[in-house]
Amino acid sequence: MPALEAWFLGGPVDGRVAFVEIDDAGSLPPALVLLQSGAYIGSDIQPASTVEHHYVRENSEADPPIYLYVGPTGG
Fold first, then answer.
1. Residue 42: predicted pLDDT
2. 13-64 pLDDT tens trace
3. How many Å apart are CA 18 and CA 34, to the nearest integer?
4. Rounded distance, CA 55 to CA 35, Å?
5. Are 57 and 29 within 8 A, CB to CB?
6. What's CA 35's distance to the chain center, in Å?
7. What is the CA angle 53-58-62, rounded to 5?
8. What is the pTM of this model?
9. CA 6 distance to own-chain centroid
């Protein structure tokens, strides 16, 4: 699927430019949910659960388009 570069502000991917898939009409989605999971060396046997982070597209003509961090989805 084709993708465009977008800039992410705030949250765990602050300041990063990443590719976001576009739909059949060539449009970026109005909102995204990014999953954050990771591993580190620690004393816990079970890894932490995945956290979902919500970003919404800013209504501007910025190039690249900008997604702003809203916060964790709680799910």
1. 66
2. 899 999 999 999 999 999 999 887 665 666 777 777 788 999 999 998 889 9
3. 12
4. 11
5. yes
6. 8
7. 125
8. 0.79
9. 10
β-bridge partners, 57: 67
Q: Is 41 helix (H, G, I), strand (E, B) or coil?
A: coil
Find the farthest-apart pair of alpha carbons in the chain and give their distance in angstroms, rounded: 48
CA 28/CA 39 separation, integer angstroms: 30
The radius of gyration of the chain's CA atoms, rounded to the nearest angstrom, is 15
E runs forming strands in 24-64: 31-36, 51-57
Adjacency order of strands within the sheet including 16-21: 16-21, 3-9, 66-72, 51-57, 31-36
d(C-alpha 24, C-alpha 59), whole Å: 20
**Residue 5 β-bridge partners:** 19
β-pair partners for 51: 36
